[in-house]
């Protein structure tokens, strides 16, 4: 079972190395690794290219594409289309896998026959402190239970259900879409990645928070048939970000 890992990036020279190093450190190296760059104006691509010989020596298929795109989810869709693996994981620039991430994904898909899996994640704050966010499935849906960087999906499922490119939470919308379709989803009680906080999803301005609330409500919950009461969950998530970071 080959795993394709897709990293999207743009002007990410400060962070791209730690992400690439984490893929290179995987205990299971039957990997196709795709860097999808949005025509960076810094030396992101040069840094990525500098890893080519090490990737090839490790037996990892390594591909780099750099061209303009229409944003995060357009870049992700591009990577998914180009990926040839049986299973696909999306690891954004700056985030890192634990060295057992791919090995654990392969084992989980083989043993459970799942179509989507996700696991615990370590959330690293801007002050360097961290906490573990657990992976859970329960009747009440909240993104506090789901972790994008630890998510692996069957390749044919991703290709048949591209991101809709409607809002900043399209990845969570995809997860809810998979639940609505009745896909077999499993969680793994292990930390498989670390996420560095402080990006677009944590912008604390009122305008940005309001947009995230409406995006989550319309394009995640309502589009997938959830109650209007989920507006309260959307507001609660943003309030928690404002208070707790």
Question: How would you sum up this structure, described in words?
Answer:
About 40% of the residues lie in helices and about 20% in strands. It has about 240 residues and is an alpha/beta fold. The chain has one domain: Spore Coat Polysaccharide Biosynthesis Protein SpsA, Chain A (Alpha-Beta Complex). Strands 1, 2, 3, 4, 5, 6, 7, 8 and 9 form a 9-stranded mixed sheet that branches. Helix 1 links the parallel strand 1 (about 5-10) and strand 2 (about 30-35). Helix 8 runs antiparallel to helix 9 (about 230-245). The longest helix has 16 residues, at about 205-220. The chain starts with a strand and ends with a helix. The model has no long low-confidence stretch (mean pLDDT about 95).
Key descriptive features of the protein:
alpha/beta; Spore Coat Polysaccharide Biosynthesis Protein SpsA, Chain A; nine-stranded mixed beta sheet; about 20% strand; globular
Low-confidence stretches: none
The mean pLDDT is 94
Oligomer: single chain
Order of helices and strands: EHEHHEHEEHEEEHHEHH
Overall spatial form: globular
CATH architectural label = Alpha-Beta Complex
The top level CATH class name: Alpha Beta
Number of helices: 9
Tell me the distance between the termini: 38 Å
Largest sheet: 9 strands, mixed
Q: Structurally, how many domains make up the residues? A: 1
Radius of gyration: 17 Å
CATH topology (fold) name:
Spore Coat Polysaccharide Biosynthesis Protein SpsA, Chain A
Strand content: 15-25%
CATH homologous superfamily assignment = Spore Coat Polysaccharide Biosynthesis Protein SpsA, Chain A
Query: What fraction, in percent, of the residue positions are helical?
Result: 25-40%
Helix/strand/pairing class, anyone?
A: alpha/beta
